[in-house]
Specification:
Radius of gyration: 31 Å
Number of strands: 9
Number of helices: 28
Membrane topology: Multi-pass membrane protein
Organism: Cherax quadricarinatus
Helix content: 55-70%
Subcellular location: Membrane
Shape: elongated
GO cellular component, one term: membrane
Pfam family, one: STAS
């Protein structure tokens, strides 16, 4: 009865905390910036929203191609996240939508079921991410270190770029894994279509040049610039950040003009109009077999969990990068991302997350609040409503160029040297993750990398550094005792190692006669295994009739030691240590 009453009280307190006015306002961040919204914010958000929209439309189509879905599904994925993040998002720069990594993960797990599987994965991802946010499980992301994330994103970027070589060269083949991709690429390279290759390479060169234009000092807006100078510099900036849309539009026009004798491999028919708003299908007809919701989840397998984890990782990493030193509310970002996926599944979206490319464009375009997403989402809806009949003429080579030029900058080679200089052992999870993701599976790579990282942390906990020093008392020159100082806490993984180390010091350095003093200054607490280990250590010294003293013992550690029910010597001060040694 007491347990039941305490449980009810705990639930009541939880409900009261959840539905307090302060908590509700915190979970609806737009209530913070909306009352302060002004014309300056409106101008910045419209400019940034339009710029991001020009990037989102061609990238949405391109990422649908990566996921091997119909092109319209890329656009379906590009607008609902923008709207939902306005309500629930806490970082003004982030834009939610399809990304290269999520497209690749979607292909990995929805390949057999096509759009039905992709949309259902978006739904389940939203549910899982929201649940994780409500349970405050954001701290689990901290167990995946920066080297693991760098290895994962770099391998994913190379995998995605490699998969687009066939589109760039005008080839047609299917492959699984990077080794098979390059094997079939070189096997089919003799069938290269020079028209597609020319268009693809020229598009890539133009994209790379236009990417650098905005960074030229001569085109940066200065306070001393005249009005017309500011206008043309702003124009150059818009051309630079809207390069994807410009290149795809030019390629579309060229292909449209040649539509009677089409020299390029084009995207093909794109379903016109907006998607219907309804829940995702919870059953699917795959190769003549009707699969239930449970059958689909069994077919997808680990993807049900892996895709939400990758989505959270990517979004939190981007939020941290653009936070400007501010603290990120991981719980709120998870709730926002979960709502974006959940709502997106009702408009036939594939799984989405934060986009680094579009977030960078958003930030450099001067966005003021998350309301810029309304403009971006509206542009995508307008494109779906009025322009889809022309999208079928977009050459696949130009889309391949857009994807390759976007992902090659995700290869995080810059971290190798800093990691080597900071902590060389971190190279192990970095390269383990990278190679496993590249040559096996992305999802396995991130798990293996996290496992290696965790093993290194546990090894450091199980094998702490032990400093040994022969100390003489201040008023004499004779060696008085041997000081042993473990450099980390004492818990069950390190108990045997510390016991062995202290015994070794007692037998060698202390010659089985000098007093051994254990400095517990680094012990924040002890568990049951540690207490039993200390008792065994005391017994070892007692058998040799060798004194053993513990100093710098915290209150929590002292409580654990006193539970031994044995004669243990604890010195609270230097004077006590002197008396014990005497």
């Amino acid at each position: 009865q007491t347990f039941f009453n305490k449980s009810v009280d705990f639930l009541k307190r939880g409900v009261q905390r959840t539905f307090r006015r302060e908590t509700l306002l915190k979970r609806l961040p737009f209530t913070t910036w909306l009352p302060k919204y002004d014309l300056q914010c409106l101008e910045g958000d419209i400019m940034a929203g339009c710029t991001v929209g020009l990037t989102a439309i061609p990238q949405g189509i391109a990422y649908a191609v990566v996921a091997e879905l119909p092109p319209n599904y890329g656009l379906y994925s590009a607008f609902m996240g923008c709207f939902m993040y306005v309500i629930f998002g806490s970082c003004k720069d982030i834009t939610i939508g399809p990304t290269a990594i999520m497209a690749l993960m979607t292909l990995e797990y929805s390949g057999s079921g096509g759009p039905v599987y992709a949309v259902l994965l978006c739904f389940t991802s939203g549910i899982i991410i929201i649940t994780a946010g409500l349970c405050n499980l954001g701290f689990l992301i901290n167990f995946i270190s920066k080297p693991v994330i760098s290895g994962f994103t770099s391998a994913a970027a190379i995998t995605i770029a490699s998969s687009q070589l066939k589109g760039l060269f005008g080839l047609s083949y299917s492959s699984d894994g990077i080794i098979e991709t390059y094997d079939k690429f070189f096997h089919n390279i003799g069938k290269t279509r020079w028209q597609d290759l020319t268009l693809g390479l020229s598009s890539s060169v133009v994209l790379l040049i236009m990417r650098r234009v905005k960074d030229i000092a001569a085109v940066r807006v200065r306070a001393s610039d005249s009005r017309w100078t500011r206008v043309w510099k702003k124009g150059v900036f818009l051309v630079s950040v809207g390069r994807n849309a410009i290149v795809v539009l030019v390629a579309l026009v060229v292909a449209y003009c040649q539509r009677h004798e089409q020299p390029f491999i084009i995207t093909g028919e794109v379903k016109p109009g907006l998607p219907p708003f309804h829940p995702p299908a919870f059953s699917a007809d795959v190769n003549g077999t009707m699969l239930t919701f449970g059958d689909i989840l069994a077919d997808v397998g680990a993807g049900v969990v892996i895709i939400p984890i990758v989505s959270i990782l990517e979004s939190i990493a981007i939020a941290s990068a653009f936070a400007g030193g501010a603290t990120i509310d991981a719980t709120q970002e998870m709730l926002a991302l979960g709502m974006c996926n959940l709502a997106g599944s009702f408009v036939q979206s594939m799984p989405v997350t934060g986009s680094f490319t579009r977030t960078a464009v958003n930030a450099t375009s001067g966005v003021k609040t998350p309301a810029g997403g309304i403009v971006t989402g509206t542009l995508v809806i307008l494109a779906l409503a009025f322009l889809t009949s022309y999208f079928k003429y977009i050459p696949k080579a130009s889309l391949a160029a857009v994807i390759i030029c976007a992902v090659i900058f995700m290869v995080d080679y810059q971290v190798v040297l800093p990691i080597w200089q900071a902590h060389r052992l971190d190279q192990l999870p970095l390269w383990t993750t990278f190679l496993t993701c590249l040559f096996w599976k992305l999802e396995y790579g991130i798990l293996v990398g996290a496992g290696v990282n965790l093993a290194l942390v546990l090894y450091g906990s199980a094998r702490p550094k032990v400093v040994v020093d022969v100390t003489a008392m201040q008023d004499g020159d004779d060696e008085a005792y041997v000081l042993v100082e473990p450099q980390s806490g004492l818990f069950f993984p390190s108990v045997d190692y510390v016991r062995t180390s202290v015994n070794k010091v007692g037998l060698t350095t202390a010659s089985s006669r000098m007093t051994v003093v254990v400095d517990c200054g680094h012990f924040t607490g002890v568990d049951y295994t540690a207490v039993k280990g200390i008792k065994s250590l005391c017994n070892d010294f007692e058998k040799r009739h060798q004194p053993l003293v513990f100093i710098n013992v915290s209150k929590g550690v002292r409580k654990g030691l006193m539970s031994l029910n044995t004669d243990i010597k604890i010195a609270a001060s230097q004077d006590e240590l002197r008396s014990l040694l005497a």
